[in-house]
Amino acid sequence: MKPTHSARDPRDLGGPRQPLLSVRELKKHFPLKKTGLGLRGPRLAVRAVDGISFDILKGETLGVVGESGCGKSTTARLLMQLTPQDSGELVFDGLSLGSPGLSLRDYRRQTQMVFQDSYSSLNPRMTVEDSIAFGPTVHGVSQREALSRAHDLLARVGLEPARFAGRYPHELSGGQRQRVNIARALALEPRLIILDESVSALDKSVEAQVLNLLQDLKQAFGLTYVFISHDLNVVRYMSDRVLVMYLGEVVEVASADALFEQPLHPYTAALLRSMPTTDPLRRTEQAPLSGDPPNPIDPPSGCRFHTRCPDAQAICRTRTPVFGEAMPGRSVACLKYEPGSGYAASTIALKEVTHA
Amino acid sequence: MTAATFTDTRGRTPVVRSRGHGANVLRRLLRNPVAMIAATIILLLVLMAIFAPWLMPADPYATSMLKRLKPIGTEGLPLGSDELGRDLLSRLMLGGRLSLFMGIAPVVMAFIIGGGIGILAGYAGGWLNTAIMRCIDVLYAFPSVLLAIALSGALGAGITNALVSLTVVFIPQIARIAESVTTQVRRSDYVDAARASGASSLLIIRKHVLGNVIGPIFVYATSLISVSMILASGLSFLGLGVKPPQPEWGLMLNTLRTAIYTQPWVAALPGLMIFITSVSFNMLADGLRSAMEVKQ
């Protein structure tokens, strides 16, 4: 084993500069049920996630945003390996998942997930403490120790163990249940936690409390978050960097501040315009985005966003943009920022942006 | 839902513990008068069957040409006598043993086998599910009476063969229920969460699936006991189940049917026993279902 840069976590292999999780060309298509005999014609599939690549850096919170159906949740399930990918690989701290160095079991110990529905993600027949203690017992921790860890974690997430440990999920409120789910995710002492719309179902005041709890826990346990949400305000509050998805593809990745200050991709810009604001001076004049996203079974040719893009040109219909660095630390998949792509204003646009 | 609580010290700190699901179901069941009456009747019938040899007023096998087909209330024959002059009360009591056994045993066996198959198919999903369930559907396509008769006929008369054929009749029915309940549970987030914790399928089935599917399967199986009793009686009636002179309600109904015009009340008694028992089991199953269905 290589000597570690940080003495804090002995599991840290590659040091702080190595991404915690590198996602490489991850692809997942869901085949549709064949009609009739299904022998004729090409096999149709929903291209839920269509070859996405990104890095999750150590200690960051990576926000993931996009419309419904853009593949956010499928990405979460792929990252958690609840759904097997068609192709692509996950590299966790330098080790490829499935290689001798990192089995699925090891990976799952270090990566956990908190689901959206706080009720259906808890076994109704199990007490809170048993639900939390289940994971550690799977990995060989004794029942007694797992329970005492469960009690510690309950206290950490703000639920008094003496009052809550022996309760069943239906006796708790939504916010309390989500705290239990967070405690369960923490029970395996993971390094990466995937939060898939984890606070979306909570009412606003409870949501704020849980968000602050998540921030505290991140500090205390040195966690890395993937924070998936459709709520842009919450993503901005939580995230260090933000990844924007459209129709199963990554269209833009940037630091949260840069992205919200100055979106590069027209889709990101449209998304941000759709954020409700209470400032009358920032009133939106034009409709931010019209229509539904195109059918992911048969996505548009070229750039997938060209059907709804306000800046689309003829070239966008035929040429597929390459996801690449447009500015230092900012990656985008748009012909506007691709030198020599044939997009008429591409050089001007890039200059505008770089000098802005 | 008011859950009475108590404290225990399983962990390190004393913990307020809620009453479990099973205790709640039992409590609601105890408050359901219809289910409790049914349960009492079943309990009495079972006790009667178990202690029949000691409770019987007369020898159920002793025939008498003089006492043939006496009406109910005859001196020494409280429920009359059958076509061979045997004491009907004694025969009904002893007959309860086999009748109840034939009602319960096939269902228990089918519950274990069919439930196992259904849970396996439901949890596995995909092509394995399709393969298993299509095979089950082949059996399911036959009307159960016909299947029971055909199997018993092919295997030959006898209690064991009747038991086997009834079990085969119930396996597909229970398997289908088990499969559909398990499929639902398998898709739930808490099973995903358990998978995410790295647990093996077997452990997930044991810890997370079983507890959530066994209730509905059990309720359905309970409702099959009455069907099993009636089918078993039917097989005996056709001469495919219990053999004379052993008393069994279905067989008694068969042999007494010739006396339907001379002693209709006596002839109807075994049928009445079957009716009471099967209705009781159905009521109990209904009570169980509603006790379990309460959303918390």
Provide an overview of this structure.
Chain A: It is found in: Cell inner membrane; Membrane. The complex is a heterodimer of chains A (356) and B (296). Chain A is 31% helix and 20% strand. Chain A is globular. Chain A starts with 20 loop residues before the first strand and ends with a helix. By secondary structure, chain B is mainly alpha-helical. Chain B is 70% helix and 3% strand. Chain B has a two-stranded antiparallel ribbon with strand order 1-2. The longest helix of chain B has 37 residues. The chains are: A alpha/beta (356), B mainly alpha (296). At the A-B interface, helix 2, strand 6, helix 3, helix 4 and helix 5 of A face strand 2, helix 8 and helix 9 of B.
Rg from Cα of chain B:
23 Å
Tell me the number of structural domains of chain B.
1
Q: Give the tally of β-strands of chain B.
A: 2
Largest interface: A-B, 44 and 32 residues
Spell out the helices and strands of chain A N to C.
Answer: EEEHEEHEHHHHEHEHEEHHHEEH
Query: Any idea of the CATH class of the largest domain in chain A?
Result: Alpha Beta
Decide which structural class fits the backbone of chain B.
mainly alpha
Shape verdict of chain B:
elongated
Could you say what the CATH topology of the largest domain in chain A is called?
Rossmann fold
- Corresponding CATH architecture of chain B: Orthogonal Bundle
Keywords (chain A): ATP-binding, Cell inner membrane, Cell membrane, Hydrolase, Membrane, Nucleotide-binding, Repeat, Translocase, Transport
Protein name (chain A): Glutathione import ATP-binding protein GsiA
GO molecular function (chain A): ATP binding; ATP hydrolysis activity
EC number (chain A): 7.4.2.10, 7.4.2.9
